[in-house]
Amino acid sequence: MTRLTRRAALTLPLALPAAAHAQDWRPGAQARIVVPAAPGGTTDIMARLLAPYFQARWGTPVVVENRSGGGGTIGTMEVVRSAPDGRHMLMGNIGPQAIGHSLFRNLQYRPDSLAAVSNVIRGPNVLVLHPSVPATTVPEFVAWLKREGGRASYGTSGMGQSPHLSGVWFNQLTGTRSEAVHFRGAGPLLIDLVAGNVQFAYDNLTTAIEHIRGGRLRPLGVTSADRSAQLPDLPALRETMPELAPYDVSTWFGVFMPAGTPAPVVRSVSADIQAFLALPETVARFTQMGGVPAPGGPEHFEAFVRAETAKWGEVIRREGLQMDAG
């Protein structure tokens, strides 16, 4: 926690002078954060943590609006089409803001349709099973998938989201098959997974962790290169089988605004987010969720998103995946 807080603090001198000319900027009227997913997932949780913080800081209402569907593309377009006045924000993520640019044939927006403001949180996905699945280790799970011969189903938080691509890459590396069932966000996915309507998922650790702690889902491993500090006894999937040695997926969630939003406004809001990420209570909350703060100003976040878009573009081309946005 000390290291993370210090890192966040070191980001502030970079962000704050740039925002000095916009320190008095406030929305002046109600602002909103659009969530391109259903309530209950990490994207939604992050927006609902930031909204009251912004509201207290700005002295104006900040509402959260869920616009789910299309793998996050519907909510993204809601913000792309909005006025670039600082009052319209998107709580974006790896799916529609990085993976989607290569996965979907018919996207109506481009990377430069949005202004990157700040990353907020990052963390791994986790492979979780409904208790009815007869596997307690990854090799046992792979053997079960092969016996099922493609009949097993896994839930995702939407086409093109990292829980979807996590499953695709896992199947490719292990020579298995399974059917992806797409939901409008992690909240509906977890309801059906806990009920046994789908059999497993590669969900964000931040949303799955309470179900793991409650014994409602059985975890087999995290998708990141290293183990999570929140579940140190749970292996990284790449540790469990030689075939999975290259496997490494982390997810992230950050704030965007429509392209054309004035740079001083973007910098001011980014500086407010850096202050939020440096709060001890923010670090503690993220730790409880199984994630870590991801501070950095607009230029840093823009470069990060560009690199993520290129990385996933290579994976998708190698897999030969293409689909239409919902």
UniProtKB/TrEMBL annotation:
Identify one Pfam family in the record. Answer: TctC
Tell me which positions the record assigns to the signal sequence: 1-22
Coiled-coil segments on the chain, per record = none
Q: Does the keyword 4Fe-4S apply?
A: no
Q: Which CDD domains match?
A: PBP2_Bug_TTT
Give the record's keywords alphabetically.
Signal
Tree of life domain: Bacteria
Its family?
Answer: Belongs to the UPF0065 (bug) family.
Q: What is this protein called?
A: Tripartite tricarboxylate transporter substrate binding protein
Lineage of the organism: Bacteria, Pseudomonadati, Pseudomonadota, Alphaproteobacteria, Acetobacterales
